[in-house]
Amino acid sequence: MTEVRRVRRIIRKIDAWTVFKVSSIFWAIAALGLVLGLIMFWSVVQASGIPERITDFLVTITLVEEGSDPFGDDDAFFRLALFGSIAWAILGCGMTTLGAVMYNLISDVVGGVEIVVLEETLNPTLAPSPAAGPSIGYNTTTDITELPTQENPVTTRR
């Protein structure tokens, strides 16, 4: 049988170095996903002929000159996407780490964030074994009401 009790925990500090390491991995993967997504999106757009139709429309309304190709430089698009995603990852990692540092500073003033979690403890009931004879040390007719925990290291019996 398990016993569930509500326990209050307070988060007072978040290690900024750990946040930096985890967020740098997260933002690097997000940047890689962004670059791959943009490459796939651009290939689908080019295969469907949308840039040529946009260029024809811009020539029709005289925003670009006849014969110009504003969407012709694919390498520039990919360089811009790569540079933008790297800048986005660096900025995101820095902002995440700055957020952890700001949390630590504010936590020193207000005392942290209090959360309530449910802690389950297992309370086994001991039944006498017919082959073993009487048990030594525990009275098997009473239940152990609480097992030792970090907060309450003493076992109490009723």
Summarize the structure.
The chain has 158 residues and is an alpha+beta fold.
Features:
two-stranded antiparallel ribbon; single chain; 4 strands; 3 helices; 16% strand; 158 residues; alpha+beta
Order of strands across the biggest sheet? Answer: 1-2
Structural class: alpha+beta
Described by strand count, sense and barrel closure, the largest sheet is: 2 strands, antiparallel
What share of residues is helical?
A: 40-55%
The sequence of SSEs as H and E is EHHHEEE
Number of strand segments: 4
What share of residues are in beta strands?
15-25%
Tell me the radius of gyration. 32 Å
Instruction: Compute the number of helices.
Output: 3
Characterize the overall form. elongated
Q: pLDDT average, as an integer?
A: 82
Our measurement of the CA-to-CA distance between the termini, rounded to an integer number of angstroms, reads 16 Å
The low-confidence runs, each spanning 5 or more residues with pLDDT under 50, are none
Can you give a write-up of this model?
With 158 residues, the chain is α+β, with helices and mostly antiparallel strands. It has helices at residues 16-48, 50-60, 74-110; strands spanning 2-11, 113-122, 144-146, 156-157. Helix 1 packs antiparallel against helix 3 (74-110). The protein is elongated and about 95 Å long. The relative contact order is 0.20. The model has no long low-confidence stretch (mean pLDDT 82).
